[in-house]
Design brief:
488 residues; alpha+beta; Rhopdopsin 7-helix transmembrane proteins; Alpha-Beta Plaits; 3 domains; four-stranded antiparallel β-sheet; two-stranded antiparallel sheet; 18 helices; 6 strands; 8% strand
Length: 488
């Protein structure tokens, strides 16, 4: 493709933006409505005494909270940037969104692992279940999972990876092509002066010129970032040129950069930044003239692939080779958030599937509700694996230079969040019968209730009577204290 066509390319069409924004809005609305409704329903059931297993209800409640937070943070930021046409938040906020969003997605997997262990204990160790899975122990487990995943996704803090919405890279070379001085310089003198300039920028540790070199490179970074919407990811100094690794924020920034490169004005613009008094006095020249070079093939490939993926404007871990030690971080993160949890999940449900019926002690029988819950939890774990695993694999392949169709990548990006809606609906269906029983208890005459509904009603009435009797005792105690105080 020619340079003229590249300059005319301004980004995705309005129809594509509307389609993506609408789909994200629908998914976000569904996630919020389904999971917030589930949270309110479980809270209502807990207050009315309608939960048959408080541990299961607490697990589902935690899953619904995590699902809601995941959808609001990840889908919300992605939808805003998609509608605006580019990422609109600051770099610091991008780090926060990437960290929290990745941690919440891992939290969904971790909660399904805790649910699998809970079901495994209920089916395989029913006698020990009441002592192992108490509300306090469950809170300790959830807190331990949070403490485990907090450092796993903090890789950028200790030098592993980077959370960003930018993808890919292009290279630009900046070289000294001419030198203006009072006396005419020959080629050897120009080469010597150019080498001295490159050495000046390279030697940041020098006590005299180091701070000036750092300041010059920082001025170049600021110029690209503020004036050209281009990130300077890396600066490499060689004896013949300066190589910049660049990332454009959007199509317009790339087109402007390519136009200046083609018209040979970018070098002069950078020369105005570099030619400060300190540098010129150090080199003992009047002015340095620069030229830039960018490969059109590399720029065109960058436009066709990374910028298209960048349309998603999603802050996540950058898997490209721009980041050092990224392979180690990928392995470290995948083992603790994907491999180990899913191995535990599959082991637990496989053991439950292959279990033998054994006599149990009174009070530890497996009920129909327990069997229903294990099917729901197992299905949710399988759905979570099927939604997250392809997305992780595509990101790793992207870092290796293997790309898929952008539309497929976008669908894989939102598929984990679509699964949050399905999970919420599954949990809704799980407790639907309990809600119906509670409603029947409130509305139906006693003689029209079924035996199961009646027992449900009796349990709730007992809990209400206990609560009322406790309140009455407290009121009588308070009255006695008031009488004693008044008599004193």
């Amino acid at each position: 493709m020619s340079g003229e066509v590249l300059e005319e390319t301004v980004g995705p069409s309005l129809a594509a933006v509307v389609a993506k924004g609408s789909s994200l809005g629908v998914v976000l609305t569904a996630v919020i409505c389904v999971n917030v409704g589930l949270i309110l329903k479980i809270r209502w059931m807990s207050q009315t005494g309608g939960t048959r297993n408080p541990i299961v209800s607490h697990l589902v409640l935690c899953m619904a909270v995590i699902n809601t937070a995941t959808g609001v943070i990840n889908i919300g930021s992605l939808m805003v940037s998609t509608i605006k046409g580019s990422y609109v938040f600051s770099s610091g906020l991008c780090q926060f969104i990437g960290y929290i969003g990745s941690m919440l997605l891992a939290g969904v997997t971790m909660m399904t692992m805790i649910a699998a262990v809970e079901r495994f204990t209920k089916f395989m160790k029913p006698v020990d279940y009441p002592s192992l899975f108490t509300p306090t122990n469950l809170k300790i487990m959830i807190g331990g999972v949070i403490l485990l995943i907090l450092p796993i996704f903090a890789g950028p803090i200790y030098g592993f990876g980077e959370y960003t919405f930018l993808r890919g890279k292009i290279h630009m070379h900046l070289a000294v092509i001419n030198i203006t001085n009072e006396t005419q310089l020959d080629i050897s003198q120009m080469q010597a002066t150019a080498l001295k300039f490159y050495g000046f920028l390279h030697n940041e540790d020098n006590n005299i010129t180091g701070s000036a070199a750092v300041r010059t490179k920082q001025n170049i970074r600021n110029f690209f970032s503020v004036s050209r919407e281009v990130q300077v990811r890396e600066i490499v100094i060689s004896p013949t040129a300066i190589q910049f690794t660049l990332r454009a924020y959007n199509y317009a920034a790339l087109s402007k950069l390519w136009k200046e490169q083609k018209e040979h004005t970018l070098g002069e613009t950078l020369g105005n930044i570099v030619n400060d008094n300190y540098t010129l006095n150090l080199l003992q020249v009047q002015r340095l003239h620069f030229g830039t070079f960018m490969s059109q093939a590399e720029v065109e490939k960058y436009r066709q692939v990374p910028l298209v993926y960048q349309e998603n404007s999603h802050c996540s871990l950058d898997y490209t080779d721009v980041n050092k030690n990224i392979k180690g971080f990928i392995g470290y993160q995948s083992i603790f958030t994907m491999v180990i949890p899913h191995c535990v999940i599959f082991y637990c449900y496989l053991r439950i599937l292959c279990r033998r019926s054994e006599p149990t002690q009174p009070g530890s029988e497996i009920t129909t509700f327990d069997s229903k819950i294990v099917r729901v939890f197992a299905t949710s774990a399988l759905l979570n694996f099927m939604s997250q695993f392809p997305h992780v694999i595509t990101n790793i392949l992207f870092g290796m230079g293997i790309f898929i169709q952008p539309a497929v990548y976008f669908l894989l990006s939102i598929f984990p969040y679509c699964s949050l809606v399905v999970l919420g609906l599954m949990y809704w269906a799980t407790f639907a019968a309990d809600v119906c029983r509670l409603c029947c208890c409130c509305c139906c005459p006693v003689e029209n209730r079924s035996s199961e509904t009646a027992s449900m009603f009796e349990v709730s009435q007992v809990m209400l009577l206990r609560r009322n009797s406790s309140n009455a005792v407290n009121d009588r105690s308070a009255a006695r204290v008031n009488i004693l105080d008044s008599s004193a």
